[in-house]
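Sample 1 of the test manifest.
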Amino acid sequence: MGWAETARTAIAALNARRLRSLLTMLGILIGIAAVMLTVGLGQGASAQITAQINSLGSNMIIVTPSQTTSSGGFRGGGGSASTLTTQDATMLANTAVAPDVAAVAPTSSTSGSLQSSNSTWTSTVVGTVPDWQQVRARTLASGRFFTDAEVESSAAVAVIGADTASELFSSGSPLGQNVSVNGESFTVIGVLDSAGSSLSSNEDDTVVVPLSTFASRLSTSSTANSVSSIYLEATDADSLSAAYQEVQTALLASHQVTSSDADFTVSTQASLVETATSITGVLTLLLGGVAAISLLVGGIGVMNIMLVSVSERVREIGLRKALGATPGVIRRQFLVEAGILGTLGGVVGIALGFIGAAILTPILGMTVLISIPATLLALVVSLAIGIVAGVYPASRAAKLAPIDALRSE
Amino acid sequence: MRPMLSMSGVTKTYATGAIEVQALRGIDLAVQGGEYLAIMGPSGSGKSTLMHIIGCLDVPSTGRYELDGTDVSSMTEKELAEVRNHKIGFVFQAFNLLPSLTALRNVELPLVYAGVPAADRRERALAALTKVGLAERVQHRPGELSGGQQQRVSVARALVTNPALILADEPTGNLDSRSTRDILELFSELNEAGRTIVMITHEADVAAHAQTTAHIYDGLISPSPATAGVSL
């Protein structure tokens, strides 16, 4: 009996019990669709985060404070005070100390209640220096950024993000208008171009003020010259690792610590991307694992139904054997039936995955990336599940003695 | 002339747990080509077991069984399946047609397992159905046919491979008297055309249609019903 004839017989048998075949396929279908969607979501999130980190600015190095247990003994007294200071930033800006660093932007931030003449809003308030614009690769939609002189004189000026501008000043230009930040009055001198939202915060909803003004009027920190992070830019992509080393070495020396008990962390975009993708990788694995379990349950469903099918069709199997079907032919017939159930479930599941991805992308605002290799793998897996689930029922059918099979009423 | 079917000293013992049941105790039987033999016996006589062995659905415990010149006593399941396919046409009491297939597809089934190409298969199945008088009903499913017609389909299925032996197991057991007469006439016609037929039955008037009758009692062939009666 050829493969074509076997497939024809299997399809006829599945078609004779249509509802049951559909319900059995449903298990595989849901499993495959779930695996494709969760893995697709994970890959989409990973790609999106990578793109966002890259959009933060080119060749960027970020220094953030970190609490370590060994240094906590004497630094713990500062409470939540940052271990980074404006002096650190000044030192790193010295080309003798860090020749491969092109720009340094010490930055502090806090949450601020904003009030304009006709609106109130809450946003992130950032205190920094003019280099921030270069390091973060931001451009201005209108007006100008504040100058070193304004930082020097602690001027009450502010540059605001595009979203903040539209929230506070729904009509008319924000330039020259007054905005109150936590009760302190600032004059708006510029509006930033839109940069989109990043990891946790909306880059377009922010108020940027001179660092000195931030420290004297808005800071909640106990130490006046501490900053929450220092953004640096390497001169070019090739000098990024050299700049990284210089920053690390200079800060270790000035903080008088070794790398094992450092009270700060230096990261580059590459290391951030690595961290982010490893986190989304773990999440994807976790979700994909849950989805894979549902696929396994679907496979057990196929096996269950094939067993029921074998015991229901004992007479048919007996007759086929009496008419000359060898055990091998009977085994193959049931294996093909199970394989068709698995593959059909897989194909419909893949289609459902694509539809789900198309629907979820706008709803979640996240890209669901479904790759061709993943799709092909899903197809192979569904066929394999069908066949593996069919092995035991098929060998039971093949072993039935024709006389026992014919006798059963 | 070598017989179409010959058995010597065939026994069959079933072991059900600790108890051994000897269903056949030494059968000697010879059927010539073109012969029409009825095997009669009451229930429990071993006639079903004998039918299974003649039909190569089971193998003897001891003894020798040759069918059409081939020793089938110690064949594997796969070889037996091939022998059943090529040499035996079955007609069962319960018809045993597959309900989801048309009459034509049911008749084609043994040819499917023989690996006959589709066009050839269809032609031979149509010819067999015409021979049993069902040329008009080839696209009907078993549920749309009467009992007599269903049994004709299964006779057509038995004929289609052109087997050495037609083995009928209580072929009229599920039929009314009119259909019984039709089927027995069909068997007689086939026999006159040269077919070798072995029919298992417990009804004497059905057995009377055969050329010869063998009686089985207690796992042994008795020469005549009279001696079987005496041994009671």
